[in-house]
Amino acid sequence: MEPTDINGGRFYARPLHNDDRIDDTPAIRLIDAHFDVDQAHHRWHDNSMYSWAVCEQTNIDMIALAVLHLTTTEHGLSGILDIAPAGDPARELPNDPILDQKTVGDGVHEIRGPIERWCEAHGITLTR
What we know:
By secondary structure, this protein is an alpha+beta fold. It has helices at residues 25-29, 37-45, 104-121, and strands at 6-8, 11-15, 49-56, 62-73, 76-85, 125-126.
């Protein structure tokens, strides 16, 4: 399966990048100094781990890292979903003043449901 975007309304999850257009590495370093984007791409393609940058709907900047740790069972794929904020979860996000003010922590909380539904649609059983 190819990496894909997941639209969650006010927040979305997109594939990780470390290229000349978008570089998620600085935000990732706030979460895990040893996480490697290139390795994450390889792990996506071998179905051992899927990962996304969580972003606010009007911005490409990563505010959290969502990682789905996968294992193959006799019933198919199962996984554990971890979502970690990049920096202070109480940090307010810049957005249109017409919209409700949101924080990084809101993004962590609000993207969980859309990713869980994506997993269900792809036959991945989540464990806690």
